[in-house]
Design goal:
By secondary structure, this protein is mainly α. Helix content is 76%, strand content 0%.
Length: 148
């Protein structure tokens, strides 16, 4: 049952990315800048997360641990900013479906590499034909979405 709920959470998160693409594109268009659109999105998200932390009682003392990590872990925020910026630029030009499909193809491809080598502290999971077939199917889906 717990794994089923985790799957539902993952599906909901994916759905939110597609909705976010449309919303963030509209923000970027309204302010005439994908960079400011991404910044506005991150500010809104940061405020929401801060309010959640206050309401849920997450101990602020845990934040100190983040400063103990190597510097390159902080790049995750920069990568997130790049993702939102790219979505703002791409969604109006390619459509939300193709944009999300391409980003998922990119995510799956690099995920195989991260899993295979156990990078970034992730448990190692070797690349096999089933995983490669899954990424190939996603890329095939992108081709089918784009050819219409």
């Amino acid at each position: 049952m717990q794994q089923f709920l985790l799957f539902l959470l993952a599906i909901a998160a994916g759905a939110m990315l597609a909705i976010q693409a449309g919303l963030n594109s509209a923000i970027g268009k309204a302010v005439s800048s994908p960079v400011y659109g991404a910044l506005i999105s991150f500010v809104a998200g940061s405020i929401a997360l801060f309010i959640y932390c206050l309401v849920s009682g997450v101990p602020l003392g845990n934040l100190r641990r983040a400063f103990e990590l190597p510097w390159y872990y902080w790049v995750g925020g920069i990568l997130g900013g790049f993702y939102v910026f790219a979505i703002i630029v791409l969604a109006p030009r390619l459509g939300v479906g193709v944009t999300i499909a391409l980003t998922v193809a990119g995510q799956m491809t690099i995920s195989l590499v991260i899993d295979h080598f156990g990078l970034l502290g992730i448990p190692q999971h070797s690349i096999n034909w089933w995983r490669v077939a899954g990424v190939t199917a996603i890329i095939g889906g992108v081709v089918m979405l784009r050819s219409n």
